[in-house]
Write a structure and sequence with these properties.
By secondary structure, this protein is an alpha+beta fold. It has a single domain, classed as Alpha-Beta Plaits, CATH 3.30.70. The protein is built from two helices and four strands, in the order E-H-E-E-H-E. The chain has helices at about 15-20, 45, and strands spanning about 5, 25, 30-35, 55. It has a two-stranded antiparallel ribbon. It has a two-stranded antiparallel ribbon with strand order 2-3. Strand 2 and strand 3 (about 30-35) form a beta hairpin. The longest helix has 5 residues, at about 15-20. The chain is globular, with a radius of gyration of 9 Å. It binds iron/sulfur cluster (2 copies).
Length: about 55
């Protein structure tokens, strides 16, 4: 299952630099994960200050 970023995201950008496959990008009002590329490593969730990324 891929990770998904919730609306709690404050667009700090921390997660994008941690993703090993580079599948996180800045979207409209929050960051978004390309679920087709996500390998569910959990790194994004580990660095997010507001707990926005979670396994869907
Ligand atoms: Fe990237 Fe891992 Fe987060 Fe998926 S779970 S978006 S691969 S950092
Ligand atoms: Fe949004 Fe969390 Fe990623 Fe920051 S680390 S951009 S708050 S999902």
């Amino acid at each position: 299952m891929a990770y998904v970023i919730s609306d709690d995201c404050i667009s700090c950008g921390a997660c994008a630099g941690e993703c090993p496959v580079g599948c996180i990008s800045e979207g409209d009002g929050k960051y978004v994960i390309n679920g087709d590329e996500c390998v569910s490593c959990g790194s994004c969730a580990g660095v997010c200050p507001v707990g926005a990324p979670a396994e869907a």
